[in-house]
Amino acid sequence: MFGLGMPELLVILVIIIIIFGVGKLPDIGSGLGRAIKNFKKATTETEIDITPEKEEKEKLESSAKTENTTKKEKQTV
Q1: 3-class SS at 64?
Q2: In the Cβ-directed half-sphere of 27, how many Cα atoms lie within 13 Å?
Q3: Measured between alpha carbons, how far is 11 from 19 in angstroms, rounded to an integer?
Q4: Which residue positions in the chain have pLDDT lower than 70?
Q5: What interhelical angle do 25-44 and 6-20 show, nearest 10?
Q6: How far apart are CA 35 and CA 45, in angstroms?
Q7: Within 10 Å of residue 25's Cβ, how many Cβ atoms?
Q8: pLDDT of residue 30
Q9: What's the count of helices (H) and strands (E) in the chain, helices before strands?
Q10: Which of 8, 19, 48, 68 could covalently link to 4 via disulfide, CB atoms 3.0 to 4.6 Å apart?
């Protein structure tokens, strides 16, 4: 595991206890667990909804119609 043995892990744990204190360790652990859970969930989800909203879709359609009419007008001139 990244070349870390038991003594190195204990030193890291002691430093974390000194910095954050014993009272914050459960909060840090639960936050880290939630982060890992959300990361796993995000990596396993394969479908992302990128369909435009109804209003955006209507804007795109209306702009396409105006472009078509301007192209037709240019061709007749």
Answers
A1: helix
A2: 6
A3: 12
A4: 1-2, 47-49, 52-53, 56-57, 67-77
A5: 110
A6: 16
A7: 13
A8: 93
A9: 3, 0
A10: 8
